Structures are given as C-alpha cells and as structure tokens.
Amino acid sequence: MRQVGFTFVLLLAIGGIFASCTGGHDGWTQLRRNDWQWHHRGREWALGLEARGTRFRVDRGDTEFRSAVRNLGDGPATLRLDGPTGSRRWQLEAGARIDLEITLAAGEYTVDASSGVVLGCPRIGRPLASSRLLIVILVDTLRADHLTPTLTPRISRAFADGNWWRRATANCSWTLPSVASLFTSRPVLDLTAPEGDLIGVPEGVATWASRLEAAGFIGGAVVANYTIHALNGFSSGFASYMVPDGRAPAAHPDATWVVSEARRWLAHHRGEDAFLYLHLMDPHQPYRSHSDPEITAPDLAELALRRRAASDEERVLLKRLYAEEVRHVDEVLGPFLDELPDSAVVALTSDHGEALGEHGAWGHGLNLFQEALRVPLAVSGPGVPSGEIEDPVQLLDLGPTVLALMGVEATTGMVGRSLLDGGSAPPIISSTFGGGPMRWSWLDGRDKVVLRMAAQGDLGAQARSAMQEGQPLPAGGFHFDLEADPGEQDPRSIPDRLMDRCGQAFASSAGRMVPGLQLMVWGRRGAVAVATEVKGEVGVVQAWSRAPMTVLRDGDRLLVSCSASYPVCAAAVAVDPAPPWVRPLDGAATWRGVTVDSPLSIDDLESPGNTPLAPGTYLWWNQARSLVVGGHEETLERLRALGYIE
Predict the structure, then answer these.
(1) Residues paired with 480 in a beta bridge
(2) What integer pLDDT is reported at residue 597 of this predicted model?
(3) Does residue 599 surpass a pLDDT of 90?
(4) What residues pair up with 442 in beta bridges, in sequence order?
C-alpha cells in the first residue's frame, strides 16, 4: 500500500481485531486482511469477514469505516456498531447489500451482527488526496472494424486523446483462453491442459489484478459473461467480483447492469488506489434488437458450426443486429466514460472478434481469420501519448501496459511487454481448440501463417480432436500476405523463408503442452514414417497433422506415420515411468534435438547456439508442469451451455 505518512498499527486480539490509527495524513488499511475469505450469494462474490466479533480501535477522529455489508442469510438480519459515541444499527433483508461508509471518532469499536452478515473488504482510513484509478473495459466479441466514429461516436470521443493500436490481435478466438491470456500475460497454450482443455487461470499464476492488489490497490470486477467466473481463477487479485451464475446465453446481463454496478463500486471506493474490470457481453450472440424487442435473431449455433449456410435475409438481419448491439454499448458506455476523472487510466479492448459471413463463417472460436482475431485496443490517461499505432501488437501485452502506467512491475512469468515501449517482439501466436482440433497462427508484419489440424479419430485427446464443424475448412498449412490480401482470400504455400521461424515457434508453443516425449516431423513433404525405441507404458495425448495419423506400438518400437504430413506431423506421448529410455531409429544421425539415449528438452532446442527448426525430424522431452484450476466441473457445465463443447 502506498505510504503517505498515515500509519495503522494492527493488534490482533482474541475474538476480533484492534486497528489503531495515528498520524495526520490520508491512507487506508484493510481489517484482518489475511483472514478474508470469498463469500457468495447470487451474482456477488466478495472477500471479507463474518461481521460478528470484529473489533478495532481508532486513534484519530474523522476516520472513515467502509465495507460492502452483505446479508448472505435467508432471513432479515441486524448489524450493530458499538463505539465511544453510542451504537448504530442497520437492518438488512435477506440478500441485501449496504455500501457502508461512516465517519468515526477516536476510540474502540465492536461489530455485532446476525449470522450470515459479512463485511466485504472492511477498511478504515481517510480518502487519498490524489488516488490512482485504473479501469479496464472488455467488450466481448467486439470487432475492431465496428469501433468507429460513425457507429460508436461516444467511445471514439472518450479516447480521442488516447493511444489506439489499430492492428491489435487476440491470442485466441474465443473468450475463456483469450481472457486467461490477457489476465496473465502468458501464451494461450502455456495455460492449456495437455488434453486441450482451458478452464481458467491456473492457481498461483500471477495476473495484472493480483500484481495491483499486492501493490496496495483495491480491485473490483463486474462481469456479464458467466464463463469468466470467480470459481475458475479470474477473481485473483480482486476484493469484489460480480458475475452471473446462469447456464445459458440468456443469463448474460445487459450493459446497463455492468455500468450501473460500476458506478456504485466507484462511488464506494472514491479516494482509494483502485482498479475496476468491466466485461460487457452485448455484441455476443444471441444478438438482440434494442429498438424492436419483437425481432428474433436466427440461431447462430448452426451457422457457426458450418452445418448450414445463412440465407440472404439472415445475412442482412444478423449484420444489422450485431451493429445495433455495438451501438447500444456505445450509448450505455459513453456517458460512463465521460464521468470518469481525468486522472484515471482507462483501457478498452475485446477478447476476440466475430465472423459475419466472411469465409462462409459466423460467430467465433473455430477459425483464426482476421475478423475473429482483430480487436479494438485503446488506452487513455496520464502518461499515455495521443496517437495511432499501425504496427501489429498482441492482446497479452495489455496487462504489462496498465501495470506500467500504475507504477507496478510485471512478474517474470509474464511474457508481454508494455505497449508504450513497443510491446513484445514478434511473432504473434494465436491458437484455439474451440469446436475441434487445434488451429494455430503465426503473425509477423504482413506475413501470416495458419496451421489447421485434422481430426484424429481415436488418437490422442478425445475432447479436442472431434470435429464439430459440419463443413470444416481444409486442414493444412497456409500463408497469407495481409498487405496484398487483407481479406485472406488467397491462401498460399508457406514460403521457405518462413519455415525455420514457424517451426521454432510451433515447437515453443504447442510443443510445450504435453509432459513426456515429443516427436515432430517439420517441413517434410509427402508421407512420413518415423520410429523410436521407448521403454515403458506409452499413451498418445496429442496428435497433430493435416491428415489422419497412425501411432503403433510394437514391443519397444513406437512408429508414427502419416500420408500427408506437410508442414507438420507431431505426436505428444506420455511415457511411464519418466524420463524414458529413448533411442531414435531409422537413421539416428539425421535426427535433431536428441542424442542416443539422451533426449533434450524444448529449452535445449531453443538455446542461442542452436539452429532454428529447419525441415527435419525432432525429438525432445518435456518435464511435467503444474496446471491446477479450480471450478473445473462448473466451468465445463457453463461451456456446454454456451455450445463451446458437447
């Protein structure tokens, strides 16, 4: 917490806590912070204490006590504060919330309350004369080309003096992985389980919110997308978190709810170093008409899964409704942005775009075309220069950017860099497992490479290898020149000049996912059949190629074959016990990344003295990595309700 001369001495006592405050300057301290737990009712999740038995002492008058008091019980409840000037009482109906703010005289205080009454983020102090405020706003599914002075005039005016990154790319084309990457500033595949599931922010992984909390800021979140839930790690660093508990798209609240709760939260935290995350859902399907509620949009799921084509009437209606949703966001968000103080740092972005018929696609999550990856990105506030940046940047750089603007260092685990310093070096890697086997893209300047893997049937991870698309896009490797072909209408073969760098990037991202033995044939045309000798039990976890692969075990011989492998044929194999005894067969002298009986790690492949991955056959060993996320079953249920998984 920022020190400005106003100190609090916390004295633990049996049955409660004494907080003694002395000095003459502004500041805040949180009561018994180490004992806070998450408390929940309906949409509200709050860190705090059971109210009964909390005690504190104030050594100077004109000190504020603040807390978002909640009655989590099923019936009416009472809260009483006893102090040197008498008692104060509050009545709370079941489920009620009071943003308590009272000025105290010097003396000792005791809180008594009915069972179930919780003090959310209880703190005492005085408003800071120059508090710091960060607002991060994410408009789910907002295409970059729909944030314009014509369609969103209020938002455009609010960021007129800020910095716009006009070629910002999301690191995934659907919400859960993209927001996890945004929060942690880590690549999507670093956060993905070996089988391809990504269900939240892994426990113990720092986020920009947890870094701000450690630096003394208090944080709140108002989230309309129930997938980004407190249960699966996204609440790390926040003291209060509001998110619906619904199980269907209709449960997503309107932008008016998000902005209303944001105003309430900011009013309760004025004069505090604070940050607020807002997640709006209005452009997300199902699209709604805000001018005529009788209009019903076609079911986007069938179109998004390419199980049928949209009619001409449907195409026109869906585009009109999507634009109307964006206008609604502008109408609701614009006045809120105008109310924010000039001292606030405000960031606006999206988690991904939305296909509106391009390439015969609708919705998001299944492909990596630019309409699904391009997102708006703007930041305004003190320390932010005015202007527009045309160089490609990636969304995972936003976390380190806002941390730098608030004077807080990013952690070593964050791979992003502040956009105000140019952001992280290219290439930009995006990937998705949504609706079928992995898609992977590599972007550097005007060059974009996309790999689309084929479904592998019974081989590897079942949940992420089954193709859900009725008419899937062709598998293989494709190159797009985004300057000559910005609409990605003319896929070409991957140029030889890019093969080494793309192979290195694929091995460094997808090749890290699965602990165990990794076998990859890169850049070899035609059919391949490679073998290695392995001791121990073997199980294929991931298998990636443009055509169906075969992995056979014959004694200690493991044979991987594919009829059409270019540009990649890869198998990630779990071996028990680990590490395996490995001996490459079929011409060991031609293998890279391994010596006989001594497999290297992916880090060895990336060492400065190593040559990038030219076409060849590679073998390496991944150590086990920890990836623990809470709320697994609840998150999977929410994903099924959205249609992301079956």
Answers:
(1) 448
(2) 44
(3) no
(4) 429, 449
Whether residue 351 contacts residue 140, with contact meaning beta carbons closer than 8 Å, is answered with yes
Among 552, 575, 577, 566, residue whose Cα is nearest residue 523? 566
Can you say whether the dihedral through the CA atoms of 136, 137, 143, 144 is positive or negative? negative
Give the whole-number percent of the chain exceeding pLDDT 70: 89
Maximum Cα–Cα distance across the chain: 88
What pLDDT, on the 0 to 100 scale, is given for residue 578? 73
Report the C-alpha gap between 526 and 440 in whole angstroms: 21
Residue 570 is inside which H or E element, if any? strand 568-576
Distant-in-sequence contacts of 359-364, Cβ < 8 A, 24+ apart? 359/473, 359/488, 360/306, 360/309, 360/471, 361/304, 361/306, 362/300, 362/303, 362/304, 362/310, 362/318, 363/285, 363/300, 363/301, 363/303, 363/304, 364/141, 364/173, 364/174, 364/304, 364/434
In this predicted model, what pLDDT tens digit does every residue of 425-465 receive, in sequence order?
999 999 998 777 899 999 999 999 999 999 887 787 754 55
* Helix or strand run (H / E) with residue 47: strand 44-50
The token duo for 350 is: 């999206």
**DSSP secondary-structure letter at 257?**
H
Averaged pLDDT score across all residues of the chain: 88
CB distance 183 to 425 below 8 Å: no
Please report how many Cα atoms fall inside a 13 Å half-sphere around the Cα of residue 629, on the Cβ side. Answer: 27
Contact 121, 47 (CB under 8 A): yes
pLDDT at 551 over 70: yes
Q: 330-369: b or e for each residue (b if 16 or more CB lie within 10 Å)?
A: bbbbbebbeebeeebbbbbbbbbbbbbbbeebbbbbbbbb
Name which of 22-31, 151-160, 501-510, 581-590 the model is least confident about.
581-590
Are the CB atoms for 557 and 538 separated by under 8 Å?
no
Whole-number Å distance between alpha carbons of 588 and 570 = 18
Q: Average of pLDDT values for 585-604?
A: 51
Q: Count of alpha carbons within 13 Å of 448, Cβ hemisphere only? A: 24
pLDDT computed for residue 587 by the predictor = 53
12 versus 316: the higher-pLDDT residue is 316
Q: How far apart are CA 498 and CA 448, in angstroms?
A: 10
Token pair 């040197």: residue: 84
* pLDDT tens by residue, 161-204: 999 999 999 999 999 999 999 999 999 999 998 888 878 999 99
317: left (phi over 0), alpha (psi -120 to 50) or beta: alpha
Are the C-beta atoms of residues 127 and 64 closer than 8 Å to each other?
yes
pTM for this entry: 0.92
Is 226 in contact with 251 (CB distance < 8 Å)? yes
Instruction: Report d(CA 360, CA 257) in Å as an integer.
Output: 34
The structure tokens listed for 407 are 């004077």
How many CB atoms within 10 Å of residue 48? 26
Assigned token pair, 618: 């590679």
**Rounded distance between C-alpha atoms, residue 34 and residue 31, angstroms:** 9
Q: What pLDDT is recorded for position 307?
A: 87
In angstroms, the CA 355 to CA 463 distance is: 24
Q: What average pLDDT does range 213-223 have in this prediction?
A: 96
